[in-house]
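Good day; I would like, with your permission, to put a structural problem before you. What I wish to show you is a protein chain and, alongside it, a tokenised description of its three-dimensional fold. Please examine both parts with care and let me know of anything in them that strikes you as inconsistent. Thank you for your consideration; the sequence and its tokens are set out here:

***
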Amino acid sequence: MIDLFYFVKEYLDLIMVTLLVCTGLFLTVRLGFFQFRKFGYANKHTIGSVFSKKTHEKDASGVTSFQAVATAMAGTIGTGSIAGVATAIVAGGPGAVFWMWMSALLGMVTKYSEIVLSLYYREKNDKGEWVGGPMYYIKNGLGIKWLAAAFALFAMIACLGTGNATQSNSIALALESTLKIKPWITGLVLTAIVAFVILGGVKRIASVNEKMVPLMAVFFVVCAIVALCMNIGEVPAAFKLIFKEAFNFKSAAGGVAGYGIMKAMQAGFTRSVFSNEAGLGSAPIAHAASTTKDPVKQGLWGLFEVFFTTIIICTISALIIITTGSFITTDSGVDGAVLSINAFNSIMPGIGGGIVTLSTVFFALSTILGWAYYGEVSTQYLFKKQKHCVTVYRIVYVAFVFIGAVLELGVVWDVSVFMNTLMAVPNLVGIIGLYKVVAKITKAHFKKDTLE
């Protein structure tokens, strides 16, 4: 049974990589290389508008634009930025980092498109709050209700693994590695914290993430840059190795030429999904809760999210691992957050591990909180008339925080990647099927912006 799972998973991984690449290329061409042409405009109207009052305006129908972004960023700047990079390098070598970059460049326009569609086709629930996501634009845009329900079901299950178990697992491993805290103790504490926050609903989740996400991102980036500066002489060689290994034509044991490239691509693209969620369909659920009326304005945050999480944070994490050579000694079973801790410690003995551990704890905790909301929206969509189902889902979700903390790392990641694939397929079908709507909305926005 286990062998069958890994056989199916291997092929589903290839299907997801192919779909992500093809969707990104298709949207890039059809939208006129939007992510490159409007990159400056996007930065000006996203990170450049953080201190604008409009970015923080809210009403009873949803959360502020920045809170929606913070919640989505909480889901993206998770352990994929630390543990995910490490597992990608272990699985596909340094060349996997190059393919993470390629995934991000294509994923920028994919994420923009899904956020635009999410706001355009969103609805209000019985509490008067905005709700949206792939299930809504598949249903209201394509009119395929069964596919919308399939996405909601896969998302509901994936939230338990990708946004929950993998995160608590990374926290538990990091704390055990640096502070010798038993995983079950970490699991109990995390369970209590998560239960308290998610019972307050989306507004409490958004409020917590609005404060936690910017602080943790700045803290990690600054500390990581300092670490890189201390090892700056090795950075050029690290970049050279990344490019060299990305196109390594070494054969597999059976003599299949190009095996090295395939492994690097597969590891890079699948782990990139963990870091930026482009094409997965999760982040648009958070963005749909925003009070922002213009889909394009909110969609621009998608460009920024992918660029910041993968091109900046993941690259910094990868360079530290590669410049220290920590990935070479992974035959002992060192992987994930522990590998990143070892890399930081080799540059900054003592405090390096503490930096990664603290970052992992807050990155992962914010992700657990963000994905709790994704799971709730998916549950509400599937069981509109059974109000108690959301409560049941919350209980199950909280239980998975503890389960993830005590499970083996490999099992957690493999199951999560498998569920990501199932979740991504209907979402990508929806995006491709509605790309003309994205193009129309985008054109109208920039026409109006020019007139103003």
